[in-house]
UniProtKB/TrEMBL annotation:
It comes from the Bacteria. Keywords: ATP-binding, Nucleotide-binding, Transport. Residues 9-239 form the ABC transporter domain. This is ABC transport system ATP-binding protein. The keyword Ribosomal protein does not apply. InterPro entries: AAA+_ATPase (IPR003593), ABC_transporter-like_ATP-bd (IPR003439), ABC_transporter-like_CS (IPR017871), P-loop_NTPase (IPR027417), PstB-like (IPR005670). The keyword Transport applies. GO terms for molecular function: ATP binding. SMART domains: AAA (SM00382). The lineage of its organism: Bacteria, Bacillati, Bacillota, Bacilli, Bacillales.
Length: 243
């Protein structure tokens, strides 16, 4: 990490198990503020579990997590989820209109999302106003993913956690989503953490990268480490010998 980066989310010797099975082992590292960090590594490495720790869905067995210098337990769970937005590969939607879906985070708080605010969110993700009243079942995968990202932006999160959000999309939609995330990162200085299986993507959009395997962080550094990893297991992974 660059020494002048603020460590927005920081892990210190974090362990997490499910029953007897260790899922995360001695995780130490940070996601710098306003930067894009990618998480790469084979299936089952523990990447999604790390995300669940960041927004308080689960708590570590031992070790500490800090959000902007404050212990994660000191946040109210609702406040934490507002600060740390999460978007998933499946872009889960409720039935009905785009507007209804965009409004979900505020309707859950018993409030309404005004039309002009909904349109502003649509514009932000590059969709026209006419989409507002469309039924989500008529949208393409790429459009659904844009709605899903717009929805996480309703609460102006400080951090966006993205779990494989482009892996089921065609190349054009994938590029649009990448551009969108880079724009959000630049305009709002949102800290981005992006789980991806696509190493090319990690290299092109990420400032930093974490390589995880078997519940451990094997390498952390500027994205360039993916070009010439030191660890022999990571070398095999980036050559594609491991999935
Ligand atoms: N609720 C659970 N019960 C039991 N095991 C779990 C549970 N959640 C995760 N695991 C296990 O934890 C390990 C890490 O899973 P995780 O989903 O975090 O990995 P991942 O790196 O995100 O993988 P993928 O790329 O396949 O999503 C896996 O071995 C998984 O089987």
């Amino acid at each position: 990490m660059m020494s002048n980066d603020n460590e927005f989310i920081k892990f210190e010797n974090v362990h997490y198990s499910f029953g007897d099975a260790p899922i995360l082992i001695d995780i130490t590292g940070s996601f710098p503020e306003g930067k894009i960090t990618t998480l790469v590594g084979p299936s089952g490495a523990g990447k999604t579990t790390l995300f669940k720790l960041c927004n308080g869905l689960i708590s570590p067995d031992s070790g500490a997590i800090f959000i902007n210098g404050k212990k994660i337990e000191s946040f109210d769970p609702v406040e934490l989820r507002r600060k740390v937005g999460l978007a998933l590969q499946s872009a889960t939607m409720i039935s009905g209109s785009v507007w209804r879906n965009l409004a979900l985070p505020v309707t859950l708080q018993g409030k309404q999302l005004p039309e002009e605010k909904a349109i502003e969110l649509l514009n932000l993700v590059g969709l026209e106003e006419k989409f507002l009243k469309r039924n989500v079942k008529d949208l393409s995968g790429g459009q659904r993913q844009k709605i899903s990202i717009a929805r996480t932006l309703v609460n102006r999160p400080k951090v966006l956690l993205l779990d494989e959000i482009t892996s089921s999309l065609d190349r054009v939609s994938q590029q649009e989503i990448e551009e969108l995330i880079v724009r959000i990162n630049k305009e709002y200085l949102t800290t981005i953490v992006w789980i991806t299986h696509n190493l090319e993507q990690a290299l092109s959009i990420g400032d930093y990268s974490w390589v995880m395997m078997g519940g451990e962080v094997i390498e952390i550094g500027e994205s360039d480490i993916l070009h010439h990893p030191k660890d022999e297991r990571v070398q095999r992974f980036v050559r594609g010998d491991m999935e």
